[in-house]
Amino acid sequence: MTIDAVPRDMLSTYLEDALLTGKISPGSRLPSERLLAQRFGLSRPSVREVIKELQERGLVRVIPGRGTFVREPSSVDSIRPLEAYYRRRNATPREVTDARIMLETHAAVLAARNATEDDLTALRKMLSAFEKAGNVVEKARADIAFHILIARAARNSVLEVMFLSIAGLTFEYMLRSLADPTIVREGAPYHDDILAAIADRDTERARRAMEGHLSVAHYHYGEDLDQGLDTLARRELTRLMGPGVSLDGIIESVLTALDGPDDDLLRLEPNSRQR
């Protein structure tokens, strides 16, 4: 394919198509920024921005000193169509809360039965990350990671995938919740209660703590309870970080970390967070 010069968005489309259709196989290294810039008639900063976007979407992994590599297909990839379906249905905080109560109360019960010491250590580290987080987005990253770690500790692969399917919506929900000081004041202490109950192997206490935690928003969202989550999240992100911040990019980076090993989740801590 010979192209003297193409707009930046055409390079993005070309690479995305090659990655998603398998023209460039998983594990392969992409051409260098210099070669892509020469081939497509673009500046290296423009190529770098395209690579960054692909990385945020979980399509490639950048390894310093080695290059950019195509990511292997992940379980998150398999749930993206379902998440897109939820978004087309304009899911609301009320709907997500009801679904989370059904899923996560049982996840807490199973985690109280099945969590290992490694699980408990990871949960404690994530609570520490939540407490140290310097802004709402950092807190939301640590919060969603804490909840997915509980789903993993339940040792039920079906339940974990079900929660992953609403993880993007849940992250948007958390952006709205964590921007409200009253919700943070009333809801955040439940994290310690949930973890303590899981560590004590107290299934009923874990269930009650999780249900109490997830019910806080019902009492404080007001009219927002039945608004589209996507609209609410973009509103809060713009208010907190200004216009031009990509909600989609943030969600993609979070989902990519959630699909990896616990080490990837722990990189969401403030001292080593993803950008």
Note down, in words, how this protein is organized.
By secondary structure, the protein is mainly alpha-helical. The protein has 2 domains: 4-73, Winged helix-like DNA-binding domain superfamily/Winged helix DNA-binding domain (Arc Repressor Mutant, subunit A), CATH 1.10.10.10; 77-267, GntR ligand-binding domain-like (Four Helix Bundle (Hemerythrin (Met), subunit A)), CATH 1.20.120.530. The chain has 15 helices and 2 strands. The chain has helices at 8-20, 33-40, 44-56, 75-88, 93-114, 117-132, 136-153, 157-165, 167-178, 181-187, 189-199, 203-220, 229-241, 247-259, 262-266, and strands spanning 60-63, 67-70. The chain has a two-stranded antiparallel ribbon. Strand 1 (60-63) and strand 2 (67-70) form a beta hairpin. The longest helix is centred in the middle third of the chain and has 22 residues, at 93-114. The model is unreliable at 1-5 and 268-275 (pLDDT under 50). One of its GO terms (molecular function) is DNA binding. InterPro entries: GntR_C, TF_FadR/GntR_C, Tscrpt_reg_HTH_GntR, WH-like_DNA-bd_sf, WH_DNA-bd_sf.
